[in-house]
Write a structure and sequence with these properties.
mainly alpha; 5 helices; elongated
Amino acid sequence: MSEITLSIPDESALALKLAPEALGAELRLAAAVKLYEVGRLSSGAAATLAGIPRMLFLTKLADYGVPTFRMAEEELLEDLANA
């Protein structure tokens, strides 16, 4: 496993009102959500990055305003036609 050290301004840590351990988990989750949102990671890979189960990750997406599933309208209509 890779380890990354990240320097966070004290003001940012104070604004988030999180203990250092919780701050690390929050930043991992936020990074995982964004990488999922832009299509760089699957939901499973993003959940692994966040350090949480996939189903929990999928429920956390709503907290960030990210849709759980990404389907274009054409894909959805095609799926409906094939159902």
